[in-house]
User: What shape does this take?
Amino acid sequence: MIKRTLEAIAAMTGGELAKREDAAIEIHGVSFDNREEGLPGKLFLPLIAARNGHQYVAEAAAKGAAGSLWQKDQGEPPAGVPVVLVDDTMAAFQRLAREYRRQIGVRVVGITGSNGKTTTKDFVFSILSTTYKTYKTQGNLNNHQGVPYTLLSLDEDTQMAVVEMGMSGRGEIELLTSIAEPDAAIITNIGEAHLLQLGSREEIGRAKLEILSGLRSGGFFVYHGDEPLVERLLPEMPHPEEMLRYRFGRSNANDLYPTGMLTEEDGMHFTVSLPDFPPCFIPVLGEHNVVNALAAIAVGKYMGVTDEDVVVGLRFAEMTGMRIERISASSGALLLNDAYNASPLSTKASLELFRTLPGASRKLAVLADMLELGPEEEEYHREIGRLLDPGSFTLLFTYGPLAKFIAEEAAPRLGAGRVAWFADKADLIAALRAEVRDGDAVLFKGSRGMALEDAVQALL
Assistant: This one.
Protein backbone atom coordinates (compact mmCIF):
# COMPACT_ATOMS: atom_id res chain seq x y z
CA MET A 1 0.00 0.00 0.00
CA ILE A 2 1.04 3.60 -0.46
CA LYS A 3 3.35 5.00 2.23
CA ARG A 4 4.05 8.71 1.88
CA THR A 5 4.35 11.82 4.05
CA LEU A 6 1.54 14.35 3.97
CA GLU A 7 3.96 16.71 2.25
CA ALA A 8 4.38 14.18 -0.55
CA ILE A 9 0.60 13.60 -0.66
CA ALA A 10 0.10 17.33 -1.14
CA ALA A 11 2.54 17.38 -4.04
CA MET A 12 1.03 14.29 -5.66
CA THR A 13 -2.53 15.58 -5.44
CA GLY A 14 -1.79 19.18 -6.38
CA GLY A 15 -3.01 20.25 -2.93
CA GLU A 16 -1.47 22.09 -0.01
CA LEU A 17 -0.91 21.38 3.67
CA ALA A 18 -3.25 23.16 6.04
CA LYS A 19 -0.40 23.27 8.60
CA ARG A 20 3.28 23.04 7.70
CA GLU A 21 4.04 21.25 10.97
CA ASP A 22 2.12 18.21 9.64
CA ALA A 23 4.49 17.78 6.67
CA ALA A 24 6.43 14.80 8.07
CA ILE A 25 3.38 12.76 9.14
CA GLU A 26 3.44 9.48 7.19
CA ILE A 27 0.32 7.70 6.01
CA HIS A 28 0.12 3.96 5.36
CA GLY A 29 -2.70 3.26 2.95
CA VAL A 30 -5.97 5.06 2.20
CA SER A 31 -9.62 4.62 3.15
CA PHE A 32 -12.90 6.30 2.22
CA ASP A 33 -14.93 4.40 4.84
CA ASN A 34 -14.90 5.77 8.39
CA ARG A 35 -16.36 2.43 9.59
CA GLU A 36 -13.29 0.48 8.45
CA GLU A 37 -11.50 -1.37 11.25
CA GLY A 38 -8.07 -0.81 9.70
CA LEU A 39 -8.18 2.99 9.77
CA PRO A 40 -5.14 3.62 12.04
CA GLY A 41 -2.30 5.19 10.09
CA LYS A 42 -4.31 5.68 6.87
CA LEU A 43 -5.18 8.75 4.84
CA PHE A 44 -8.94 9.32 5.01
CA LEU A 45 -10.61 10.29 1.73
CA PRO A 46 -13.79 12.30 2.37
CA LEU A 47 -15.46 11.73 -0.99
CA ILE A 48 -18.70 13.44 -1.91
CA ALA A 49 -21.02 10.79 -3.35
CA ALA A 50 -24.15 9.23 -1.81
CA ARG A 51 -22.95 10.82 1.43
CA ASN A 52 -20.54 13.65 2.11
CA GLY A 53 -17.46 12.12 3.66
CA HIS A 54 -16.37 15.43 5.17
CA GLN A 55 -18.82 15.00 8.02
CA TYR A 56 -16.92 11.86 9.08
CA VAL A 57 -13.35 13.24 9.05
CA ALA A 58 -13.25 13.91 12.80
CA GLU A 59 -14.59 10.43 13.54
CA ALA A 60 -12.00 8.85 11.21
CA ALA A 61 -9.22 10.76 12.98
CA ALA A 62 -10.53 9.63 16.36
CA LYS A 63 -10.31 6.03 15.11
CA GLY A 64 -6.65 6.51 14.19
CA ALA A 65 -6.54 7.94 10.67
CA ALA A 66 -3.20 9.73 10.31
CA GLY A 67 -4.61 12.51 8.15
CA SER A 68 -7.25 13.44 5.62
CA LEU A 69 -7.89 15.21 2.39
CA TRP A 70 -10.22 18.20 2.68
CA GLN A 71 -12.13 19.89 -0.11
CA LYS A 72 -11.67 23.66 0.14
CA ASP A 73 -15.35 24.53 -0.40
CA GLN A 74 -16.44 22.45 2.62
CA GLY A 75 -15.63 25.06 5.23
CA GLU A 76 -13.02 24.73 7.96
CA PRO A 77 -11.58 21.27 8.67
CA PRO A 78 -11.93 19.85 12.20
CA ALA A 79 -9.42 21.23 14.67
CA GLY A 80 -6.45 19.02 15.36
CA VAL A 81 -6.80 16.84 12.25
CA PRO A 82 -3.81 16.92 9.83
CA VAL A 83 -5.28 17.69 6.40
CA VAL A 84 -4.23 18.29 2.81
CA LEU A 85 -6.43 20.93 1.18
CA VAL A 86 -7.57 20.16 -2.38
CA ASP A 87 -10.07 21.59 -4.85
CA ASP A 88 -11.93 18.28 -5.33
CA THR A 89 -11.39 15.21 -3.16
CA MET A 90 -12.45 12.69 -5.84
CA ALA A 91 -10.18 14.22 -8.48
CA ALA A 92 -7.33 14.41 -5.94
CA PHE A 93 -7.84 10.74 -5.00
CA GLN A 94 -7.63 9.75 -8.67
CA ARG A 95 -4.59 11.95 -9.30
CA LEU A 96 -2.86 10.48 -6.25
CA ALA A 97 -3.38 6.97 -7.65
CA ARG A 98 -1.99 7.94 -11.06
CA GLU A 99 1.09 9.56 -9.55
CA TYR A 100 1.72 6.59 -7.26
CA ARG A 101 1.37 4.17 -10.20
CA ARG A 102 4.03 6.18 -12.04
CA GLN A 103 6.39 6.41 -9.07
CA ILE A 104 6.54 2.69 -8.33
CA GLY A 105 6.98 1.70 -11.99
CA VAL A 106 4.50 -1.18 -11.88
CA ARG A 107 3.36 -2.68 -15.19
CA VAL A 108 -0.42 -2.62 -15.53
CA VAL A 109 -2.80 -4.90 -17.43
CA GLY A 110 -6.18 -3.23 -17.97
CA ILE A 111 -9.20 -5.42 -18.70
CA THR A 112 -12.65 -4.41 -19.91
CA GLY A 113 -15.48 -6.03 -21.88
CA SER A 114 -19.16 -6.82 -21.64
CA ASN A 115 -18.59 -10.28 -20.16
CA GLY A 116 -15.68 -12.29 -18.83
CA LYS A 117 -13.71 -9.41 -17.27
CA THR A 118 -13.39 -10.99 -13.84
CA THR A 119 -12.65 -14.49 -15.10
CA THR A 120 -10.00 -13.13 -17.45
CA LYS A 121 -8.57 -11.04 -14.60
CA ASP A 122 -8.28 -14.18 -12.47
CA PHE A 123 -6.47 -16.05 -15.26
CA VAL A 124 -4.07 -13.17 -16.00
CA PHE A 125 -3.31 -12.72 -12.30
CA SER A 126 -2.59 -16.41 -11.79
CA ILE A 127 -0.31 -16.59 -14.84
CA LEU A 128 1.67 -13.46 -13.95
CA SER A 129 1.94 -14.55 -10.30
CA THR A 130 4.07 -17.54 -11.32
CA THR A 131 6.84 -15.13 -12.28
CA TYR A 132 6.20 -11.69 -10.75
CA LYS A 133 4.85 -10.09 -7.60
CA THR A 134 1.33 -9.40 -8.82
CA TYR A 135 -1.82 -7.75 -7.50
CA LYS A 136 -5.33 -7.76 -8.95
CA THR A 137 -8.56 -5.86 -8.50
CA GLN A 138 -10.35 -7.24 -5.45
CA GLY A 139 -14.03 -8.10 -5.82
CA ASN A 140 -15.82 -5.64 -8.10
CA LEU A 141 -13.73 -2.54 -7.34
CA ASN A 142 -13.66 -1.62 -11.02
CA ASN A 143 -15.16 1.90 -11.15
CA HIS A 144 -13.98 5.52 -10.61
CA GLN A 145 -13.37 4.75 -6.91
CA GLY A 146 -12.32 1.11 -7.20
CA VAL A 147 -9.55 1.55 -9.79
CA PRO A 148 -7.64 4.27 -7.89
CA TYR A 149 -8.14 2.35 -4.64
CA THR A 150 -6.64 -0.74 -6.30
CA LEU A 151 -3.57 1.19 -7.45
CA LEU A 152 -3.04 2.76 -4.03
CA SER A 153 -3.25 -0.72 -2.48
CA LEU A 154 -0.11 -1.85 -4.35
CA ASP A 155 3.07 -2.42 -2.40
CA GLU A 156 6.10 -0.46 -3.63
CA ASP A 157 7.71 -3.62 -5.00
CA THR A 158 4.66 -4.85 -6.92
CA GLN A 159 5.77 -5.73 -10.45
CA MET A 160 2.41 -6.39 -12.15
CA ALA A 161 -1.10 -5.07 -11.50
CA VAL A 162 -4.18 -6.58 -13.15
CA VAL A 163 -6.87 -3.90 -13.16
CA GLU A 164 -10.49 -4.56 -14.09
CA MET A 165 -12.39 -1.62 -15.59
CA GLY A 166 -16.19 -1.49 -15.64
CA MET A 167 -18.57 1.08 -17.06
CA SER A 168 -22.21 1.92 -17.71
CA GLY A 169 -21.73 4.87 -20.09
CA ARG A 170 -19.33 6.76 -22.34
CA GLY A 171 -16.32 8.46 -20.79
CA GLU A 172 -16.03 6.13 -17.79
CA ILE A 173 -13.39 3.77 -19.22
CA GLU A 174 -11.53 6.81 -20.59
CA LEU A 175 -11.23 8.13 -17.03
CA LEU A 176 -10.12 4.78 -15.59
CA THR A 177 -7.49 4.13 -18.24
CA SER A 178 -6.10 7.67 -17.76
CA ILE A 179 -5.56 6.77 -14.10
CA ALA A 180 -4.12 3.27 -14.60
CA GLU A 181 -2.14 3.95 -17.81
CA PRO A 182 -2.00 0.25 -18.80
CA ASP A 183 0.94 -1.38 -20.56
CA ALA A 184 -1.44 -4.01 -21.93
CA ALA A 185 -5.18 -3.75 -22.55
CA ILE A 186 -7.70 -6.54 -23.05
CA ILE A 187 -11.23 -6.23 -24.46
CA THR A 188 -12.88 -9.58 -23.74
CA ASN A 189 -15.93 -8.97 -25.97
CA ILE A 190 -18.68 -6.52 -26.86
CA GLY A 191 -22.14 -7.68 -25.80
CA GLU A 192 -25.55 -6.21 -25.07
CA ALA A 193 -25.05 -5.18 -21.44
CA HIS A 194 -25.78 -1.45 -20.93
CA LEU A 195 -27.90 -1.14 -24.07
CA LEU A 196 -30.35 0.76 -21.89
CA GLN A 197 -27.76 3.47 -21.26
CA LEU A 198 -25.88 3.45 -24.58
CA GLY A 199 -28.55 2.50 -27.10
CA SER A 200 -26.53 0.32 -29.51
CA ARG A 201 -23.72 -2.22 -29.64
CA GLU A 202 -21.69 0.31 -31.62
CA GLU A 203 -21.80 2.75 -28.71
CA ILE A 204 -20.95 -0.08 -26.31
CA GLY A 205 -17.97 -0.87 -28.54
CA ARG A 206 -16.82 2.75 -28.49
CA ALA A 207 -17.11 2.80 -24.71
CA LYS A 208 -14.93 -0.32 -24.40
CA LEU A 209 -12.35 0.98 -26.88
CA GLU A 210 -11.83 4.03 -24.67
CA ILE A 211 -9.37 1.84 -22.77
CA LEU A 212 -6.87 2.48 -25.57
CA SER A 213 -6.75 6.22 -24.89
CA GLY A 214 -4.65 5.51 -21.80
CA LEU A 215 -2.57 2.65 -23.24
CA ARG A 216 1.10 3.47 -23.09
CA SER A 217 2.96 4.01 -26.35
CA GLY A 218 4.10 0.66 -27.72
CA GLY A 219 1.57 -1.14 -25.51
CA PHE A 220 -0.11 -4.48 -26.16
CA PHE A 221 -3.76 -4.51 -27.28
CA VAL A 222 -5.48 -7.91 -27.00
CA TYR A 223 -9.03 -8.21 -28.33
CA HIS A 224 -11.66 -10.73 -29.37
CA GLY A 225 -10.94 -11.15 -33.07
CA ASP A 226 -14.31 -12.76 -33.80
CA GLU A 227 -15.98 -9.43 -32.99
CA PRO A 228 -15.91 -7.28 -36.17
CA LEU A 229 -16.95 -4.14 -34.28
CA VAL A 230 -13.50 -3.73 -32.73
CA GLU A 231 -11.60 -3.28 -35.98
CA ARG A 232 -14.44 -1.31 -37.57
CA LEU A 233 -14.56 1.23 -34.73
CA LEU A 234 -10.85 1.34 -33.94
CA PRO A 235 -9.88 4.01 -36.54
CA GLU A 236 -12.26 6.56 -34.96
CA MET A 237 -11.05 6.01 -31.38
CA PRO A 238 -7.91 7.59 -29.82
CA HIS A 239 -5.15 5.02 -29.50
CA PRO A 240 -1.34 4.84 -29.58
CA GLU A 241 -0.02 4.52 -33.12
CA GLU A 242 2.78 2.20 -31.99
CA MET A 243 0.64 -0.34 -30.12
CA LEU A 244 0.94 -4.05 -30.86
CA ARG A 245 -2.41 -5.66 -31.77
CA TYR A 246 -3.18 -9.31 -31.02
CA ARG A 247 -6.42 -11.18 -31.71
CA PHE A 248 -7.82 -14.17 -29.83
CA GLY A 249 -11.03 -16.14 -30.39
CA ARG A 250 -12.50 -19.39 -31.66
CA SER A 251 -11.87 -18.78 -35.35
CA ASN A 252 -8.59 -19.87 -36.90
CA ALA A 253 -8.38 -16.39 -38.45
CA ASN A 254 -7.15 -15.14 -35.06
CA ASP A 255 -3.57 -14.97 -33.84
CA LEU A 256 -4.49 -17.38 -31.02
CA TYR A 257 -7.34 -19.89 -31.04
CA PRO A 258 -8.18 -23.28 -29.49
CA THR A 259 -7.39 -26.38 -31.54
CA GLY A 260 -9.22 -28.77 -29.20
CA MET A 261 -11.44 -28.67 -26.09
CA LEU A 262 -12.64 -31.34 -23.68
CA THR A 263 -15.14 -30.82 -20.85
CA GLU A 264 -14.64 -32.70 -17.57
CA GLU A 265 -16.49 -32.45 -14.28
CA ASP A 266 -14.01 -30.03 -12.72
CA GLY A 267 -12.90 -27.94 -15.69
CA MET A 268 -11.73 -27.74 -19.29
CA HIS A 269 -8.78 -29.32 -21.08
CA PHE A 270 -7.70 -27.58 -24.28
CA THR A 271 -4.92 -27.09 -26.78
CA VAL A 272 -4.00 -23.89 -28.60
CA SER A 273 -2.63 -22.85 -31.97
CA LEU A 274 0.81 -21.72 -30.74
CA PRO A 275 3.62 -23.98 -32.00
CA ASP A 276 4.82 -26.50 -29.40
CA PHE A 277 2.64 -24.95 -26.67
CA PRO A 278 1.76 -27.53 -23.96
CA PRO A 279 -1.84 -28.70 -23.35
CA CYS A 280 -3.76 -26.59 -20.83
CA PHE A 281 -6.39 -27.05 -18.13
CA ILE A 282 -8.58 -24.44 -16.43
CA PRO A 283 -10.53 -25.21 -13.21
CA VAL A 284 -13.77 -23.71 -14.51
CA LEU A 285 -16.34 -25.00 -16.97
CA GLY A 286 -17.33 -23.56 -20.33
CA GLU A 287 -15.85 -23.21 -23.80
CA HIS A 288 -16.30 -19.44 -23.44
CA ASN A 289 -13.90 -19.58 -20.48
CA VAL A 290 -11.33 -21.30 -22.68
CA VAL A 291 -11.59 -18.25 -24.94
CA ASN A 292 -11.11 -15.98 -21.91
CA ALA A 293 -8.01 -18.00 -21.04
CA LEU A 294 -6.57 -17.30 -24.50
CA ALA A 295 -6.45 -13.57 -23.72
CA ALA A 296 -4.58 -14.36 -20.51
CA ILE A 297 -2.13 -16.61 -22.35
CA ALA A 298 -1.38 -13.81 -24.81
CA VAL A 299 -0.67 -11.30 -22.03
CA GLY A 300 1.40 -13.80 -20.07
CA LYS A 301 3.66 -14.50 -23.03
CA TYR A 302 3.93 -10.77 -23.81
CA MET A 303 5.07 -10.15 -20.23
CA GLY A 304 7.76 -12.83 -20.48
CA VAL A 305 6.16 -15.76 -18.63
CA THR A 306 7.40 -19.14 -19.88
CA ASP A 307 5.00 -21.54 -21.58
CA GLU A 308 5.33 -23.98 -18.69
CA ASP A 309 4.47 -21.31 -16.11
CA VAL A 310 1.51 -20.13 -18.19
CA VAL A 311 0.13 -23.68 -18.02
CA VAL A 312 0.74 -23.87 -14.26
CA GLY A 313 -0.92 -20.50 -13.73
CA LEU A 314 -4.05 -21.55 -15.60
CA ARG A 315 -4.33 -24.90 -13.83
CA PHE A 316 -4.16 -23.40 -10.35
CA ALA A 317 -6.15 -20.22 -10.99
CA GLU A 318 -8.47 -19.30 -8.11
CA MET A 319 -11.74 -18.10 -9.58
CA THR A 320 -13.92 -15.33 -8.15
CA GLY A 321 -17.24 -16.62 -6.76
CA MET A 322 -20.53 -16.87 -8.66
CA ARG A 323 -18.83 -17.36 -12.04
CA ILE A 324 -19.77 -20.98 -12.85
CA GLU A 325 -19.10 -21.85 -9.21
CA ARG A 326 -19.58 -25.57 -8.51
CA ILE A 327 -21.41 -26.28 -5.24
CA SER A 328 -22.87 -29.48 -3.77
CA ALA A 329 -26.41 -29.18 -2.45
CA SER A 330 -27.66 -31.02 0.64
CA SER A 331 -29.77 -33.17 -1.69
CA GLY A 332 -26.64 -34.37 -3.50
CA ALA A 333 -27.33 -32.25 -6.59
CA LEU A 334 -24.60 -30.27 -8.34
CA LEU A 335 -25.33 -26.53 -8.35
CA LEU A 336 -23.66 -24.31 -10.96
CA ASN A 337 -23.83 -20.79 -9.56
CA ASP A 338 -23.36 -18.27 -12.38
CA ALA A 339 -25.63 -15.68 -10.80
CA TYR A 340 -23.21 -12.78 -10.48
CA ASN A 341 -24.59 -11.10 -13.59
CA ALA A 342 -26.28 -11.86 -16.90
CA SER A 343 -26.58 -10.58 -20.44
CA PRO A 344 -27.77 -12.36 -23.59
CA LEU A 345 -24.18 -13.17 -24.54
CA SER A 346 -23.18 -14.59 -21.16
CA THR A 347 -26.48 -16.45 -20.74
CA LYS A 348 -26.04 -18.18 -24.09
CA ALA A 349 -22.50 -19.17 -23.09
CA SER A 350 -23.70 -20.58 -19.76
CA LEU A 351 -26.48 -22.56 -21.42
CA GLU A 352 -24.05 -24.01 -23.96
CA LEU A 353 -21.74 -25.03 -21.12
CA PHE A 354 -24.65 -26.62 -19.28
CA ARG A 355 -25.83 -28.44 -22.41
CA THR A 356 -22.45 -30.18 -22.77
CA LEU A 357 -21.96 -30.91 -19.05
CA PRO A 358 -21.39 -34.64 -18.58
CA GLY A 359 -22.64 -36.91 -15.82
CA ALA A 360 -25.97 -35.43 -14.67
CA SER A 361 -29.09 -37.58 -14.58
CA ARG A 362 -31.27 -34.46 -15.07
CA LYS A 363 -30.46 -30.84 -15.99
CA LEU A 364 -32.50 -28.03 -14.46
CA ALA A 365 -31.97 -24.43 -15.59
CA VAL A 366 -32.98 -21.53 -13.33
CA LEU A 367 -32.99 -18.27 -15.31
CA ALA A 368 -33.84 -14.82 -13.97
CA ASP A 369 -34.21 -11.41 -15.64
CA MET A 370 -31.37 -9.94 -17.68
CA LEU A 371 -31.45 -6.23 -16.81
CA GLU A 372 -30.46 -2.95 -18.53
CA LEU A 373 -31.13 -4.19 -22.09
CA GLY A 374 -33.18 -1.22 -23.28
CA PRO A 375 -36.22 -1.24 -25.61
CA GLU A 376 -35.45 -4.69 -27.05
CA GLU A 377 -35.37 -6.42 -23.65
CA GLU A 378 -38.44 -8.56 -24.36
CA GLU A 379 -37.01 -9.92 -27.60
CA TYR A 380 -33.64 -10.70 -25.98
CA HIS A 381 -35.43 -12.80 -23.36
CA ARG A 382 -37.62 -14.54 -25.93
CA GLU A 383 -34.50 -15.40 -27.92
CA ILE A 384 -33.08 -17.25 -24.92
CA GLY A 385 -36.28 -19.27 -24.63
CA ARG A 386 -36.07 -20.27 -28.29
CA LEU A 387 -32.51 -21.54 -27.82
CA LEU A 388 -33.38 -24.18 -25.23
CA ASP A 389 -33.01 -27.68 -26.62
CA PRO A 390 -35.62 -30.15 -25.29
CA GLY A 391 -33.07 -32.94 -25.50
CA SER A 392 -30.56 -31.10 -23.30
CA PHE A 393 -32.69 -29.61 -20.50
CA THR A 394 -35.08 -31.54 -18.28
CA LEU A 395 -36.79 -28.64 -16.50
CA LEU A 396 -36.75 -24.85 -16.76
CA PHE A 397 -37.55 -22.50 -13.89
CA THR A 398 -37.69 -18.75 -14.62
CA TYR A 399 -38.01 -15.86 -12.20
CA GLY A 400 -38.92 -12.23 -12.77
CA PRO A 401 -41.18 -10.23 -15.11
CA LEU A 402 -38.76 -10.38 -18.05
CA ALA A 403 -37.93 -14.05 -17.53
CA LYS A 404 -41.61 -14.77 -18.16
CA PHE A 405 -40.84 -14.21 -21.85
CA ILE A 406 -38.17 -16.92 -21.68
CA ALA A 407 -40.75 -19.31 -20.27
CA GLU A 408 -43.33 -18.41 -22.92
CA GLU A 409 -40.94 -19.26 -25.75
CA ALA A 410 -39.50 -22.34 -24.08
CA ALA A 411 -42.82 -23.99 -23.13
CA PRO A 412 -43.78 -25.11 -26.67
CA ARG A 413 -40.25 -26.47 -27.18
CA LEU A 414 -39.78 -28.32 -23.89
CA GLY A 415 -43.35 -29.56 -23.54
CA ALA A 416 -46.06 -29.62 -20.90
CA GLY A 417 -44.98 -29.69 -17.28
CA ARG A 418 -41.31 -28.88 -17.98
CA VAL A 419 -41.41 -25.07 -17.68
CA ALA A 420 -42.43 -22.98 -14.66
CA TRP A 421 -42.39 -19.19 -14.21
CA PHE A 422 -42.33 -17.45 -10.81
CA ALA A 423 -43.03 -13.86 -9.90
CA ASP A 424 -42.02 -14.46 -6.28
CA LYS A 425 -38.59 -15.72 -5.23
CA ALA A 426 -39.97 -17.57 -2.21
CA ASP A 427 -42.25 -19.58 -4.50
CA LEU A 428 -39.29 -20.36 -6.77
CA ILE A 429 -37.24 -21.59 -3.81
CA ALA A 430 -40.08 -23.76 -2.55
CA ALA A 431 -40.47 -25.36 -5.98
CA LEU A 432 -36.74 -26.03 -6.25
CA ARG A 433 -36.60 -27.57 -2.79
CA ALA A 434 -39.41 -29.91 -3.74
CA GLU A 435 -37.91 -30.88 -7.11
CA VAL A 436 -34.10 -30.98 -6.89
CA ARG A 437 -32.65 -34.38 -5.98
CA ASP A 438 -29.47 -36.43 -5.97
CA GLY A 439 -27.87 -36.71 -9.41
CA ASP A 440 -29.36 -33.46 -10.75
CA ALA A 441 -27.33 -30.56 -12.12
CA VAL A 442 -28.87 -27.11 -11.64
CA LEU A 443 -27.70 -23.95 -13.44
CA PHE A 444 -28.45 -20.53 -11.91
CA LYS A 445 -28.14 -17.49 -14.19
CA GLY A 446 -29.50 -13.98 -13.75
CA SER A 447 -28.58 -10.33 -13.40
CA ARG A 448 -27.06 -9.03 -10.18
CA GLY A 449 -30.23 -7.18 -9.26
CA MET A 450 -32.22 -10.42 -9.16
CA ALA A 451 -30.05 -11.88 -6.34
CA LEU A 452 -30.53 -15.41 -7.62
CA GLU A 453 -27.83 -16.61 -5.23
CA ASP A 454 -30.60 -16.59 -2.59
CA ALA A 455 -32.03 -19.66 -4.30
CA VAL A 456 -28.59 -21.27 -4.40
CA GLN A 457 -28.13 -20.73 -0.67
CA ALA A 458 -31.60 -22.15 0.04
CA LEU A 459 -30.55 -25.47 -1.54
CA LEU A 460 -27.40 -25.79 0.55
